[in-house]
Design a protein that fits this description.
This protein has about 280 residues and is α/β, with parallel strands linked by helices. The chain contains eleven helices and nine strands. The chain has one domain: TIM Barrel. Helix 7 links the parallel strand 4 and strand 5.
Length: about 280
């Protein structure tokens, strides 16, 4: 379970749901590009760098590169993975990176789970653990393990609605999956528990997918959320990123006219500017 190869896999169910929502949403939006200046300091787009599972390789390779470039990221943690290096993760949070909920044990197959047991054992307990070790004033964001968006039995909408209710009861304000195009800010504000995200090295250790995604985000004036898992000296399997490719992606982010900030911070800005009036 501690190995990322066992838990860092994208759910095809989650991807299919996200892509279907993206397609429908795009059809409803007017065909225009968002204008420059809507993001802080006049940036053309926003980017959030996110890392799943709380893996040792993120401490050893990803965070030093982020710190070298003065970039802040969001780390979605599981209790199982971080317990052995908890002090290191506490330091990460103190340095300005965001830490957030990715459940206690990273369950992916949720169809047969008892909803109350899942809520208490995976979501409530992880929020309590984060409160105890990282404070209660943190932004409450979430990443769906494996991108799987439904809990329990029923059709797709019932399962997703059930998952949303669990997150809402725990005070989660924004949740990220692992599929979909750049987020339009007004849509992110309207549906914050279904933020789109992109795994740039899911299928291979190349720069091309990340470049296309970032360029599309800048062209639209949107919000890109990148997803990483293991960051290793060499790419081994889907979901990984080599140290070299990871560094190149961060360099590209730093070079673009974008606002790069943790997911919770960007969502605060989105909610403040595109959320419904009180």
């Amino acid at each position: 379970m501690g190995s990322s190869s066992a838990i860092s896999r994208r759910s095809f169910f989650g991807a299919a749901v996200a892509l279907s929502v993206v397609s429908g949403a795009r059809a409803q939006q007017p065909p225009h590009l968002l204008t420059k200046g809507i993001w802080p300091n006049g940036a053309r787009a926003a980017v959030s760098l996110t890392y799943d599972d709380g893996l040792n390789s993120q401490l050893d390779y990803a965070i030093p590169e982020l710190d070298r470039r003065e970039l802040k990221a969001t780390f979605f943690l599981t209790r199982y993975n971080i317990q052995w290096r908890l002090a290191d993760w506490e330091t990460v949070a103190k340095q300005g990176h965001e830490v957030a909920n990715h459940t206690m044990t990273h369950p992916c197959a949720l169809t047969g789970l008892n909803t109350a047991r899942f809520e208490h054992g995976e979501i409530d307990r992880m929020e309590a653990f984060l409160d105890s070790n990282f404070g209660t004033d943190r932004q409450r964001t979430f990443a769906y393990p494996c991108g799987y968006l439904g809990v329990g039995h029923g059709d797709r909408r019932e399962r997703f609605a059930r998952y949303r209710r669990i997150l809402e009861r725990d005070g989660v304000v924004a949740a990220r999956t692992t599929a979909g195009g750049p987020n339009r800010p007004e849509m992110a504000a309207a549906d914050p528990l279904h933020l789109h995200a992109f795994e740039p090295t899911f299928e291979g250790d190349t720069m091309g997918p990340a470049l296309r995604y970032l360029n599309e985000t800048v062209a639209q004036g949107g919000w890109a959320i990148l997803v990483f898992h293991d960051v290793l000296p060499k790419w081994h399997s889907e979901g990984d990123a080599s140290v070299a490719t990871h560094a190149k992606i961060l360099a590209q982010v730093a070079a673009l006219d974008v606002w790069c900030a943790p997911m919770g911070q960007v969502f605060d800005y989105v909610e403040g500017h595109w959320g419904k009036p009180a």
